[in-house]
Amino acid sequence: DGTDLDAGTLRVTADEFQEAHRSADPEFLATIRRIRDNIAEFQSSLLPANVTVSRQRTGGAGEGG
Question: Using CA atoms, how far apart are residues 53 and 47, in angstroms rounded to an integer?
């Protein structure tokens, strides 16, 4: 559609994100959590037994931190 999208036009503030989360249907959020858990379990099953994965929660999607 010719829309010019970049990090500046897609950026959501922390307040906007929190408000969206507060207004989301609890059943929808529970479904998203189940999906997340299923994906994590499946992906973990693909790793060799001697691999450890650590998580860092910095930045947002596509951002370094």
Answer: 9
Taking the model in full, what pTM does it have?
Answer: 0.55
Structure tokens at 26: 């609890």
- For residue 45, which phi and psi values (nearest 5 degrees)? -70, -20
Residue type, 6: D
Over the chain, what HEC string results? CCCCCCHHHHCCCHHHHHHHHHHCCHHHHHHHHHHHHHHHHHHHHHCCCCCCCCCCCCCCCCCCC
The pLDDT tens digits of the residues spanning 6-36 come to 888 888 899 999 999 999 999 999 999 999 9
- Please say whether the beta carbons of 37 and 31 come within 8 A: no
In this predicted structure, what is the pLDDT of residue 40? 93
